[in-house]
Amino acid sequence: MGKELKELTSRSENYSQWYNDLVIKADLAENSSVRGCMVIKPYGYAIWEKIQSELDRKFKETGHVNAYFPLFIPKSYLSREAEHVEGFAKECAVVTHHRLKSDPEGNGLIVDPEAKLEEELIVRPTSETIIWSTYKNWIQSYRDLPILINQWANVVRWEMRTRLFLRTAEFLWQEGHTAHATEAEALEEAKKMLNVYADFVENFMAIPVVKGVKSPNERFAGALETFCIEALMQDGKALQAGTSHFLGQNFAKAFDVTFVDKNNKQDYVWATSWGVSTRLIGALIMAHSDDNGLVLPPTLAPHQVVIVPIYKQPEQLAAITEQAEKIMNLLKKAGISVKYDDDDTKKPGWKFAEYELKGVPVRLAIGARDLENNTVEVARRDTLTKTTVSADNIEIYVSELLAEIQKNIYQKAFDFRTSVTREVNSYEEFKVEIEKGGFLLCHWDGTPETEEKIKEETKATIRCIPLEGDQTPGVCMVTGKPSKQRVIFARAY
Amino acid sequence: MGKELKELTSRSENYSQWYNDLVIKADLAENSSVRGCMVIKPYGYAIWEKIQSELDRKFKETGHVNAYFPLFIPKSYLSREAEHVEGFAKECAVVTHHRLKSDPEGNGLIVDPEAKLEEELIVRPTSETIIWSTYKNWIQSYRDLPILINQWANVVRWEMRTRLFLRTAEFLWQEGHTAHATEAEALEEAKKMLNVYADFVENFMAIPVVKGVKSPNERFAGALETFCIEALMQDGKALQAGTSHFLGQNFAKAFDVTFVDKNNKQDYVWATSWGVSTRLIGALIMAHSDDNGLVLPPTLAPHQVVIVPIYKQPEQLAAITEQAEKIMNLLKKAGISVKYDDDDTKKPGWKFAEYELKGVPVRLAIGARDLENNTVEVARRDTLTKTTVSADNIEIYVSELLAEIQKNIYQKAFDFRTSVTREVNSYEEFKVEIEKGGFLLCHWDGTPETEEKIKEETKATIRCIPLEGDQTPGVCMVTGKPSKQRVIFARAY
């Protein structure tokens, strides 16, 4: 069945429905028949492959190597680190048996009670425990350190309310797990990876982020410090785009991982972990897209350019195709990915709408008059504007245009964020302002109690304590107690 | 703790122990604390990344795209295809609960009985069922076909006896799942992917393979025809290196996936699936390596060249390093991956043994006399021979040498296979010959009964019915009944 022109709900009408519509209609992902688990469709997966490939390059450039650890974690491992188990035990997939058999009473397949595992296995929600139980055997001396390992993997967290990409029971991610001889080195690593993430999300995904530290309430279960990058979506809600944890010696103590240092003294090993996930695709959609569909930064677009021939008679197509092929070759040589869509069962108008929906950054249209004039019609997805340019040196024009689009998409998101970021100085004002969305910069007394009260009363959380920008002390907007610096409050995904 | 020079068990002494020693000592993988699950260490994973990257390129070149389907399969899905469930239900990881809680009696964490799943979930042993339940929603018309999707994923099969890489409870693989409008197109796809695998394993992994068809006994559970590539290991045992299945309409029928063809007639969709796994790393090791360690074909070696400086006084090191850096730049420009090991805590002899163990194809050593003479000592891993050559144009010499090594490794494996492949014409002779290992080409009457009898009495199975080579009919060595062509018998991993 051919695809019909796909109408999206508009953002102003229902932002949440717009998001769901877009994920489905742009063929990015869909819900599977397994509760909370998604199917990532080829177009969505192609974006993930681009994210993976660039991050993997950055990880290797900073000295990391990839490895692979088991999917399953023995139940007892989870309990080793007290806060960690608290964070993950309540929502995990538990494997209890290793065989099915035919029901002797004829009701199809049943779990074979004789194949019960001695110890239940948890499908990894994150791999600190299985990895640190392994590192114990790898580390004896300072010469075995640092270990700088990353893993690309699937993880499972039994979330009750799920949403495609943003919160799914199973998701894909990378998790870095590093081991160090000193506290300073581990802290430096955690910060370095935060910067790698920030650089990637800003320059590759075109999403501005605030680098910060989580308040104790929002820290990773088992970490001493969680660094994060926080992004702002178009509906004024925040989205945590990546985290990097300084784990101190917590996991080394839980799994008894010690080393002998240069002075022949024994100590526990220092750790970090850091990760980003397919959630980034959710951030990508919500940060840039519009009522016509996806808006993709050229760096992440599976096709950066699409060429659509415009013709009345089939005879015209041959000449247009010849010109299109010339242009494609020029673009490919310039490192630009391009698709030629000469499908004659679809009208140009349908194709235009389809590629807008799919977020292809640049669309070139070539008609009979373009051939006469040696021109090409160029449409930008980000601004939805059109212009006609000479076909000579088209690859230079398109190259520069892609760079301009990348910059423009970032700037637009940056300007939006600036427009909804403001200082708020009283709790009364806060309660009014939080309803409007955006980042609220407020003084907070540093206590979990105050943070909890604000969360309960307004659904806003501290997204982070920013590492950069104004660090002037003040007084807490709720309690009037001293505050070290303004922190960012927002409602969040 | 510094690593000591690592002695391997020799192949002649104990082949199986040699393999286990090598996997561990070359830092490829190790057993985890989870029964049957391995940890793939960075060096082993780097080889897998090279396998992935080349296969992924080939899949895309042949029109396939990647996607991702859920890890979990509802229990009822497995039962939909009768042979499929028979093949997988007896060894699978079953998720029954989604929460742990503190034991009220104080015995740590227990499974929360209130968090029992309505329907158990199986950790995928292969994804035909979950994928065809999804394809049902994607396919209505012939215009939606073909679907050419591949997935890179982890899968779990609860094997009772496991061995690193060769047979593990969890392993990494790719699984292609394609949907077609006609039987002929599906069959062509299954054969095309068999050829992609054969081409990859022969030219990239330097392992000769026989392309063939499985006998019904050895067919994939749910397939109408299983195509395979069979390799021979140095101990004379066979190893199935990849399979490509023609699934007919079995899964389409099981999940009611129909389409309307060009003539407006409704029919079930035709299917294939095909996969290779981390098992290939086991094949790689067993096909080429020797008593000194790994032998890697240059195409798969994480480092193709290592440079070791030879010096007595630290002062000499600076001059050698300068020369080494020049050479490294030349090699890198020629697309050769190279590592310089100037670690001064290790002696050259230790390094030589270490890089032999790790299978680095070419080792360059540079000493004071080499500087004087503008020479480099070149050692080949495959032949363990050394020669001294001019440092001028070293990149051309090394490039050609790497090509020569790739060819030689393949030829050596090919010659070995030829030397242990022979025709056997009586069952008495067969019983003697099978003890010596190798491929035995024998006539077989085509019945499962005869195959089963031979397996029970000799532990040999039909590895495949070859697609190429001698296809002369004859009489079965066991029953004397007619045989269409000789088939390959061997004991297998």
List keywords for this structure.
34% helix; 11-stranded mixed β-sheet; 5-stranded mixed β-sheet; 3 domains; homodimer; Rossmann fold; globular; 14 helices; BirA Bifunctional Protein, domain 2; alpha+beta; disordered N terminus; Translation Initiation Factor IF3; 493 residues; 27% strand
Give a concise summary.
The structure is a homodimer of 493-residue chains. Chain A contains 14 helices and 27 strands.
Protein topology:
Two copies of one chain form a homodimer.
Chain A: H1 15-25, E1 29-31, E2 38-40, H2 42-61, E3 65-66, E4 72-74, H3 75-79, H4 82-88, E5 94-97, E6 100-102, E7 109-111, E8 116-123, H5 128-138, E9 147-156, E10 170-180, H6 183-203, E11 210-213, E12 225-232, E13 238-248, H7 250-254, E14 258-260, E15 266-268, E16 270-277, H8 279-288, E17 305-309, H9 314-333, E18 338-340, H10 348-357, E19 362-366, H11 368-373, E20 375-380, E21 386-390, H12 394-419, E22 421-423, H13 427-433, E23 439-443, H14 448-458, E24 461-466, E25 474-475, E26 482-483, E27 486-490
Helix pairs in contact in A: 2-6
